[in-house]
Design goal:
0% strand, Tetracycline Repressor, domain 2, mainly alpha
């Protein structure tokens, strides 16, 4: 029988997530991970596998505690309120980040998805979940009259996904409240029925 682990695996994973999130996959070495996770390199490998496997687990952890959590909390709200709440939380989180790490999902989409097909599939799946969240909100809003019928729900959802991605990218280089809120205001305005 092996020795029991003498560390909190969840806390170690959270520290790995923070390290990858701040520096990206390529710029993060196993030594960096071990130091940040407060483990030996052997413990990192024995518990989490190779660097690629740990990155995937760290990204999945990020998705669970940020994107999935936000969707599950907001999806039962009124349609426009859910969409506005999603963007408000996202902007607040972006503006509170002094390190300008951005969104780990967006970072993974840019750095890793093009060259790692499995990770690319994971990223694409999460982007599809975001699009589905927006589409369902739009459909409900179109049914209750709070969202315009001038465009199909699927197109409006894709616009919102594009705005979401754009806000997260811009927040890294220009974390200006007026810029980020202005983008979202325009998108929300496009959802509202003509008077």
């Amino acid at each position: 029988m092996g020795r029991p682990r003498e560390f909190d695996e969840g806390l170690a994973l959270d520290r790995a997530m923070q390290c990858f999130w701040q520096h990206g996959y390529e710029a993060t070495s196993v030594r960096d991970l071990a130091e940040n996770m407060q483990l030996t390199s052997a413990s990192v490998y024995n518990t989490f596998g190779d660097k690629s496997t740990l990155y995937r687990r760290a990204l999945e952890h990020y998705i669970d505690i940020s994107i999935s959590d936000r969707i599950s909390r907001l999806q039962s709200r009124e349609p426009l309120e859910a969409i506005e709440g999603f963007f408000a939380e996202m902007i607040a989180r972006s503006l509170k980040d002094p390190e300008r790490k951005g969104c780990m999902l967006v970072n993974a989409a840019m750095e890793m998805a093009p060259r790692d097909p499995d990770l690319g599939d994971l990223v694409a799946g999460i982007l599809k979940q975001l699009e589905t969240f927006f589409r369902r909100c739009v459909q409900r809003g179109q049914q209750d009259g709070s969202i315009t019928l001038a465009q199909p729900a699927v197109d409006l959802a894709r616009m919102l996904l594009g705005v979401q991605m754009g806000v997260r990218v811009l927040a890294r280089s220009r974390p200006e409240p007026a810029l980020l809120h202005g983008m979202v205001r325009a998108a929300i305005g496009a959802l509202k029925p003509a008077p």
